[in-house]
Fold:
Amino acid sequence: MALLEIERLEIGFGGLAAVRGASFAVDKGETHCLVGESGCGKSVTALAVMGLLAPTATRKAAGLRFDGQDLSGLSEREMSRLRGDRMAMIFQEPMTSLNPAYTVGSQMAEVLIRHRGGSKKAALDRAAELLERVRITSPGMRLGQYPHQLSGGLRQRVMIAMALMCGPELLIADEPTTALDVTVQAQILKLLDELQRELGLAILLITHDLGIVARVAHRVSVMYAGEVVETAPVAELFGAPTHPYTRGLLSCVPVPGKIAPGEPLGSIPGIVPRVGHGFTGCAFRQRCDLAGPDCEGTVPRRTLAGDHQYLCLREPTEIARS
Ligand SMILES: Nc1ncnc2c1ncn2[C@@H]1O[C@H](COP(=O)(O)OP(=O)(O)OP(=O)(O)O)[C@@H](O)[C@H]1O
Ligand SMILES: [Mg+2]
Structure:
């Protein structure tokens, strides 16, 4: 059952088409990884869902639905009611979410009171319970501390706990472990994985790290220059990557399950084009061995077995031979 459905999302910044018709869906309770090179539109896609795009951005979509509800029709007030309540987002830098001027307890409590009302005491009890849930010891003491008194890993845990205050169904995590050292990264990922299973949360996890994808994803969507060029269950994506860009990304990691955390995306010669609004055809064509003049025209979305889709003119058999 789809919890979040994104259909032909378009995001522009002036002449720049940052997202160009991206489509994918996140099911209830699944971990969905969104991958792709820097600048391909992962973060702005997440921000568009949360209604947090910069005012200079334009957003359009054929469909943008959360639990069946059309988000594009909601007012800013209705969006802010959903945000932090049924859907929450965490960032690479925890200080994006944490206010240095308030204690951990008071800002966590504030989230619950704003959405649900109730007493400060009840909210602080809930905050302590969540700190424990994210494996922070002495939660009572931590509630009285300020963010700067915490290590980077602890701040990340507090940010996660704060995101969970209202029991969201969807957690969007934009590279939540990129700024952390490897050991702490692994702990935070394990925590997200546990929370996902214990709470039945759906997680949209944005990452550059294929090791992380192999460990936690149920489903993966690959973005390239503002489009989702392939989306598939994780075993399908690693087992039968089909879009030439996905195949390039995975070329350094032939054996799923043997991918170490921190494994970078494969490198493909060339750079991601910055694409304007009038652009047509496949944006990967300059870097693709299979490209021909036909790739300047309309590119179909093809469906393979097992809910696996890719955006390319070439047949899977033709791609596999290359
Ligand atoms: N506020 C903004 N104003 C203008 N352009 C923006 C803004 N935010 C993002 N962009 C542009 O939109 C495109 C997509 O950016 P986005 O941050 O979503 O990339 P990303 O896939 O998250 O990259 P990274 O992996 O580096 O985080 C980029 O070309 C970026 O420069
Ligand atoms: Mg980003």
Summary: Residues 42-43, 174 surround magnesium ion (ligand 2) (CB under 6 Å).
